[in-house]
Amino acid sequence: MPLLAQAAGSLSQGASQALGIVMLIGFIFGTICVVGGGFAIRRGDTDAGKLSIIGGLIIAGAPVIVKALFTAFGIGSSTVDVGAFQ
Predict the structure, then answer these.
(1) 78 lies in a domain?
(2) Which of 49, 60, 79, 81 to pair with 21, CA 20 to 30 A apart?
């Protein structure tokens, strides 16, 4: 009997789906930051543009970075798997 009426599976499946949505939002936000940094460099504000591009790359690539750290420390079977985007 599930704990929540809305839960379609186990708690780990629900957490995995929720984290997948958060990763998607972070990827979109990181891409917007990179594009905004490009426009800032074009306007002549190179310092803010470079920082925005670096920050956007870190935000967009955070799931892959965390997965690599988990694998490096031997915790490769995490709840959320960063696989091929379909």
Answers:
(1) no
(2) 49
Which pTM does this prediction carry? 0.67
**How many structural domains is the chain composed of?**
1
**Residue-number span of the structural domain to which 45 is assigned:** 17-72
Residue 56, helix vs strand vs coil: helix
Taking residues 74-80, report their average pLDDT.
64
What confidence tens digit (pLDDT) does each residue in 24-67 have?
Answer: 898 899 999 999 999 999 999 999 999 999 999 999 888 888 77
* 3 domain-assigned: no
Question: What is the distance of C-alpha 65 from the center of its chain?
Answer: 9
Average pLDDT over every residue of 3-23: 68
Beta strands in the chain (DSSP E): none
Are the C-beta atoms of 82 and 67 separated by less than 8 Å?
Answer: yes
Q: Which helix (H) or strand (E) holds 50?
A: helix 46-60
